[in-house]
Amino acid sequence: MPGLVPNPLQVRATGGPGFVLTKQARIVARGADADEVGVLMAADLRPATGFDLPVVAGRSTRRDVVLTIDPEAGFGEVEGNPEAYKISSTANGVKVTGASRHGLFNGTQTLRQLLPAFASSTVQVNTDWTVPAVSILDAPRFSYRGIMLDVARSFLEVDEVKQVIDAAAAAKISVLHMHLADDQGWRIDITNSGRAADDDIDYTALTRVSGATAVLGNPYQSADGHTGFYTQDDYRSLVRYAAEREIEIIPEIDIPGHTNAALAAIPQLNTAGSSHPATEDEPVAPHNGTIDVGYSYLDPTSEVTYTFIQHVFSQLAALTPSEFLHVGGDESHAMTQRYGHEGYVAFVERALAIVHGLGKKTIGWNEYAEAGLTAGDGVQYWAGTTEHAKRAVIEDGAKLLVSPGNTSYLDMKYHAKTPIGLSWACSGDCDVAHYYDWSPQEVVAGVGDEHILGTEAPLWSETIRGVDQAEFMIFPRVLAHGENGWTAESRRSPSDFAARLASVGPRLAAAGTNFYDGPQIAWS
Ligand code: TNX
User: Fold this and answer.
1) Parts of the chain belonging to CATH 3.20.20.80
2) pLDDT at res. 52
3) Does position 31 have pLDDT exceeding 90, yes or no?
4) Rg (CA), the chain
5) Average pLDDT along the chain
6) Which of 3, 61, 197, 458 allows an S-S link to 503, with CB 3.0 to 4.6 Å?
7) CA distance 228 to 233
8) Does any ligand 1 atom lie closer than 6 A to the CB of residue 422?
9) Alpha-carbon distance 462 to 416, whole Å?
10) Does the Cβ of 409 fall within 6 Å of ligand 1?
11) Selection from 74, 144, 134, 128 nearest residue 110 by Cα
């Protein structure tokens, strides 16, 4: 049996010869939207197999793959989980049944792992495309299984992000958090349309000025970051591409700190109370490409700040189907120094009211839970005291998103000699076993599954340039992290995971995903 990652709930080898995918095979789709999943699966398998794999409706033969969406199909102990799926493979056909489109998509990703590794190859391979005789029932522990791309420090082109989405979808990742603005760059086009009558900000300067900047070379990475930005059409195409693969995009504009790129582009934000009070000599903040953090902030005492937030987040809300917008909130050190804890909290509460007023829930880094949240908002725990996150969960009804830096941050070096990456959150041995060996319910003591939204592994990009380097840091660690979001504790085991991961290596290689094949795994 090939190694399956994340580990399904039940896998039963049923014996016998299994199913062989041949050139007569068709993909028979049943239930609304099943054909869409079939089209994706056929597109995935055609290059390697060279088969036609037509997607059809109606009756099936023993040579076919049958894809069904049926919430009533009977999912046993995971009944009611919309992401549930089951697979039955015998010599007389393969059937994948999902409780929803997402459930079916999950099942097709497992089916890919049941085929020989070369099934994901982009060039044709001649082999027997056998699926072992097996019966699988599966559903995730958490619905939110995320990764984050920091395209602010170093940009990733649309096609690069799509490449990461493809690889992440195979790992049953369900959320892509995009960190779209920071001190070094601004990556999403904001137009002037719909501006308030008294608003004279030219929002198009955000990308014109700060889309052209990025992090500079630094002690950990000599190359400068990549510049660029997404037009609103680019962003919509990413949202659509991700959604087809059952990944939801949650955009982040980090406020009030990490905002030098906004200050550099919008003169009006450089008020007396901002981190860059305008002077005659220097009316707007200069670009800052260093990897310093905590120095920049928006003026909490200026109405321009809130006009800006209202406009930017309303465009983001209109572009984003997700119920969440991420507002950052981390490391507002200089602001807190100047305006105190109360000043920071008052800012966050006013910003949250704006975003809630747009009909969205918020997510923020754990510091933002120093302010009162609204039931259903997310608090993303990354570092420091867990006190505020816990309070927001217990008192406000917020949900915890677990991203503990030490076992979640994909920008940490695997070991001291990794040529890129930082080491502040993890140093020494930060390879895949370390990213497996932790449990979501232990991150904030007293906050259990009923309060946990899910898991997320962020890739910060101070030291990452382009998609090859991004994939190298993401894989295989996201597979370990993601299994923590998917698989029940009772089904998780470090040695079993290592054995299963060994057979995922060739699949990543065949699919063209760059990954770190470190010595902890006996790669097959
Ligand atoms: C901390 S994690 C940050 C980021 C950096 C990252 C580098 C967080 C909320 N803030 O601004 O990019 O460390 O690892």
Assistant:
1) 144-492
2) 98
3) no
4) 24
5) 97
6) 3
7) 14
8) yes
9) 17
10) yes
11) 134
Rounded Cα–Cα distance for residues 255 and 363 (Å)? 12
| Residues across the chain | 524
Residue 5's SS3 state is coil
- pLDDT recorded at residue 1: 87
- Architecture, CATH, for domain 10-138: 2-Layer Sandwich (3.30)
Domain with CATH 3.30.379.10 in the chain: 10-138
Residue of the nearest CA to atom 6 in ligand 1?
460
Contacts of 15 (CB under 8 A, 6+ apart): 133
Contact yes or no for 381/453 (Cβ under 8 A): no
Residue 32 reports pLDDT greater than 90: no
293 lines ligand 1 (CB under 6 A): yes
Catalytic residue among 160, 248, 252, 331: 331
How do residues 453-487 score in pLDDT, each as one tens digit?
999 999 999 999 999 999 999 999 999 999 999 99
- If one looks up domain 144-492 in CATH, what number appears? 3.20.20.80
pLDDT tens digits, residue range 135-191?
999 999 999 999 999 999 999 999 999 999 999 999 999 999 999 999 999 999 999
- Nearest residue (CA) to ligand 1, atom 10: 330
Q: Residue 69 has which token pair?
A: 């969406």
- Does the annotation mark 331 as catalytic? yes
Task: Report the alpha-carbon distance of residue 55 to residue 51 in Å, rounded.
Answer: 12
Look up residue 31 and give its DSSP letter.
Answer: S
